[in-house]
Design a protein that fits this description.
heterodimer, A: 433 residues, alpha+beta, 2 domains, two-stranded antiparallel ribbon, B: alpha/beta, D-Maltodextrin-Binding Protein, domain 2, 13 strands
Chain lengths: 433, 449
């Protein structure tokens, strides 16, 4: 009975929300209501049937406290995540059904056009699928199937090396926002905080990932562009300098981690500290202080990526048409204005490309650098999402929770990529025309 | 020309099968983590193969216990595990529950000798026996057993006026209070010498509890018939140990080094005392010899306000894969029994510092006069011999031990670096550990253990 009610509620909510949204966009209310109802129904069924409607079970509860404007409420994390999951899946159904509808309409148009356009296939052409098949089979076996398995694993209590597993609903996800040790508290716009969380270890790890991503992208791009500007000058031996500047890119993350560990080693034994001590300075706690350690990881990772960025930016700068620069000069623009108003817009596709790759690198590929430089310490200060997944899944063999964490990471990356394409797509200038 | 090429190709194709046909020895693969001990590949492997030409011993070095067990699990999942694996004392129960391994006592099945080599399990020395046995039986081969001891740079201690001469090992502090006293003198005397270093890890914590007679977990550390359902990490004894550790840190006596830094500091005579595994004896002494100072050793410091109960064994064991062909299992067992031969036990001890786990091995060394000539190597055995045979000193046994072990470092570092409250931190550690135990017991119910 609760399952039936839940499904009806999801369907009704879907109809209301999608109906309202489509009406505001000037599309028909009736179509919106139908689309929302179907998507809500499919979304709730697709989510809840595999989960056996466990989120409705009063036994499944993991609570956290949320303070908004001084009012504290206790939230059931399992139910909240289940609800969010239904929304995400239902929304995916909305987009998919809408896309199919467009596709159907466009197909009708093609068939109609085929009467007057010789050489166009009438009916559906399967040949692209045949050519794509080898790749698709590989992807299905080695990527999509393991990814689907990962979703399944995220709902299990599972230990590597232990044959038994047990279904544990969304506990693996809920334990990320609740605290397994003490009550977790979230303060939003209350008690003087805009946003603050207590006793939620995973959020701190999440924060580290965001910190690394923002600063690695910033440092590697600003420095990369600055060096590229210098390196693209016509000076004697430019190719030698360029090679020297680019070579760190060829070094693996493991080596970067080890080199920086030797360079920044604590206790006064690192090269940099030895050097500082020559001038009577106190040794800096590069790897033993939380903020120094974070900065060290950013420095090492940015240095590793710098060569690649410089390489791309040199190519980008060479592609900026000289006539535009000359025209700007004639119009009275100084070097800084030419850089800001001509160079930057002209190389914006390259900036987009580099920022995107750097962001992916800092979210996904930082493990080797962190593991060899700080091992995620001191006290988790440099543990990011990927390091934590390895720690939970490999070191602690808790593969259920590691799977849940990797799904969260996956969602973050999908969201970031989507946002990047939407935001950057509008502002990036491709070509001079 | 064509014919020659075809002939050459045929020979090339046939060559591997010819080689295979010649070598019909039974392969015994042993994955271990002692990459730095040359004795195994240089002495044991050729000697074993000469004594038993029907076996081909293949040694593979892996990077650390965790990595070894991970790769072994993977090999099991792929259906081709090695015959023997080195395991660790901090991960005893989970491998037993995994179904990957055959209990050693079952494989031996009461025999007095394997392939002509005597079964010497009844010669395992007391402290190791209580640690490695469960319900009086051996599930794995007791092998690399050690215990934490304190190494001292005797030249520094003499210079500070703490020791009368470089052979005055008794001057190395053996109680918590003595560590404070000696460190006060060291820090006062030298500007650039650190007093003591030891890991903020689990092993010292476990030993500190055992020394004070406290249990790590309920149901007599899981050895009283019922399995562990909760840990006892927030006891007064635990708080006292961490308070002592914290007081050393606050006084500037305990210094935390990362990675291999302590080796450099030790070699440079910038560190007076180093508490670590007795298995590091060979390395510590060699660094001392290479840098012109004498290395002494003494027992792990204990709480002078509480009656001393005993230390625990740490280290590892060798596990036998289940489901092997009988002749392969016989070969693997032969190698295990070969390792327990007195001469091998003695050489293993000399190469590392791990205690001789059999009485016959110990007697062999004593007859040679080894301990008289090398008193540093006698400390660990003495420490364990003086330990009570009790469940507290046998160490805890539960399936999620390895995960709990990983958590120690995080919590202890938080106490030492971030001044977190000790009792509160230990309460949290207990809560988290209990949850892991509850989850594990859900997957592997107690009666199946």
């Amino acid at each position: 009975m609760p399952a039936f009610l839940f499904t009806c509620l999801a369907s009704a909510l879907g109809a209301l929300v999608v109906g309202a949204v489509l009406k505001r966009r000037g599309r028909g209310l009736r179509g919106g209501l139908a689309l929302g109802a179907v998507a809500g129904l499919l979304g709730s069924l697709a989510t809840m049937i595999p989960l056996q409607y466990c989120v409705l079970d009063p036994e499944n509860h993991m609570f956290f406290e949320l303070s908004v404007l001084g009012q504290t409420i206790t939230v059931n994390a399992v139910a909240l995540i289940g609800f969010l999951l239904v929304i995400v899946v239902a929304w995916a159904f909305v987009l998919a059904i809408d896309r199919l509808r467009h596709h159907w309409l466009a197909r009708g148009a093609t068939v109609w056009k085929a009467d007057t356009a010789p050489g166009t296939f009438i009916g559906y052409d399967f040949s692209p699928w045949i050519f794509l098949a080898p790749t698709l089979v590989g992807l299905a076996v080695f990527t999509y199937y393991p990814a689907a398995q990962n979703f399944f694993l995220g709902t299990q209590l599972a230990r590597r090396g232990v044959a038994n597993t047990a279904f544990n609903c969304l506990d693996n996800f809920a334990s990320l926002i609740t605290s397994r040790l003490q009550d977790a508290h979230y303060y939003i716009l209350s008690d003087g905080f805009i946003w603050h969380a207590e006793n939620a270890r995973y959020l701190a790890v999440f924060g580290n990932s965001v910190f690394f991503s923002v600063f690695i992208v910033l440092v590697a791009n600003v420095l990369g562009l600055a060096i590229a500007l210098l390196a693209s000058q016509k000076i004697r031996g430019a190719s030698v300098y360029r090679t020297l500047i680019i070579w760190p890119y060829a070094i693996s993350g493991v080596v970067v981690g080890i080199v920086f560990a030797i360079l920044l080693g604590g206790g006064g034994s690192g090269f940099l500290n030895q050097f500082l001590q020559l001038f009577g300075a106190e040794p800096a706690p590069f790897l033993s202080d939380a903020w120094w350690a974070r900065a060290s990881v950013v420095a090492a990772a940015a240095w590793n990526k710098l060569g690649f960025n410089v390489l791309i930016y040199i190519a980008a700068l060479q592609a900026v048409p000289m006539e535009l620069m000359e025209a700007a000069s004639i119009d009275g623009a100084n070097a800084w204005k030419r850089f800001l108003n001509v160079t930057i817009p002209m190389i914006s596709p390259y900036i987009f490309f580099v920022v995107f790759l750097n962001l992916n690198y800092s979210f996904f590929d930082l493990y080797a650098v962190i593991d060899n430089l700080t091992e995620g310490g001191p006290v988790n200060a440099t543990t990011n999402l990927v390091v934590d997944i390895i720690r939970v899944g490999v070191e602690s063999r808790d593969i259920g929770k590691a799977a849940a964490q990797s799904i969260v990471l996956f969602m973050v990356v999908v969201g970031l990529t989507y946002m990047q394409f939407r935001v950057m797509g509008r502002r990036v200038t491709y070509g001079a025309d | 020309m064509k014919r020659t090429i075809v002939l050459m190709l045929m020979v090339l194709l046939l060559l591997p099968s010819l080689t295979l046909a010649q070598d019909d020895r039974i392969t015994i693969r042993f994955w271990h983590i002692w990459g730095n001990v040359t004795w195994l590949p240089e002495v044991v492997e050729p000697a074993f193969e000469a004594a038993f030409p029907q076996y081909d011993l293949e040694l593979r070095v892996l990077d650390g216990y965790r990595n070894a067990y991970d790769l072994y699990t993977l090999a099991q999942e792929q259906g081709d595990p090695p015959e023997l694996l080195q395991g660790t004392s901090s991960n005893t129960q989970a491998p037993r529950d995994s179904g990957f391994f055959k209990p050693l006592h079952e494989a031996i099945a009461g025999r007095a000798e394997i392939n002509g080599i005597p079964v010497r399990l009844d010669e395992i020395v007391g402290p190791a026996a209580i640690f490695y046995q469960l319900d009086g039986e051996y599930y794995e081969l007791p092998w690399n057993a050690s215990t934490p001891i304190v190494f001292g740079n005797m030249d520094l201690l003499v210079e500070a006026g703490v020791a009368a001469d470089v052979n005055d090992f008794a001057a190395i502090p053996s109680t918590w209070a003595e560590v404070h006293e000696v460190c006060a003198i060291i820090v006062e005397k030298f500007d650039d010498v650190d007093c003591i270093n030891f890991g903020a890890g689990g092993w010292y914590f476990e030993n500190a509890l055992a020394m004070q007679g406290a249990y790590m977990a309920n149901n007599e550390n899981g050895r009283g018939g019922d399995c562990v359902t909760e840990v006892l990490f927030n006891s007064q004894e635990a708080v006292d140990y961490l308070a002592w550790h914290k007081s050393l840190e606050e006084a500037g006596y305990w210094v935390d080094y990362g990675r291999a830094e302590y080796n450099i500091t030790w070699a440079d005579s910038k560190l007076a005392l180093h508490m670590t595994s007795s298995a590091a004896a060979r390395g510590r002494v060699e660094i001392g010899e290479g840098n012109g100072f004498t290395v002494g050793a003494d027992r792990m410091p204990y709480n002078q306000d509480v009656e001393y109960v005993g230390n625990t064994v740490g280290g590892g064991m060798i596990l036998l894969t289940d489901g092997l062909e009988p002749e392969v299992e016989e070969g693997a067992l032969t190698f295990l029994m070969y390792l327990l031969e007195p001469e091998n036990i003695a050489n293993w001890h000399k190469s590392t510092g791990y205690i001789p786990v059999t009485q016959s091995g110990f007697d062999y060394l004593e007859a040679e006069g080894w301990f008289e000539e090398n008193p540093t190597f006698a400390v660990a055995t003495n420490q364990l011999t003086n330990s009570a045979r009790a469940p507290q000193t046998a160490g805890a046994i539960f399936g999620s031990f390895a995960q709990v072990y990983q958590m120690y470092r995080e919590v202890f570092q938080n106490i030492l670096r971030n001044d977190a409250d000790i009792q509160e931190s230990l309460d949290r550690l207990k809560a988290e550990a209990d949850l892991l135990i509850e989850e594990y017991n859900l997957l592997v119910p107690c009666e199946e253990m």
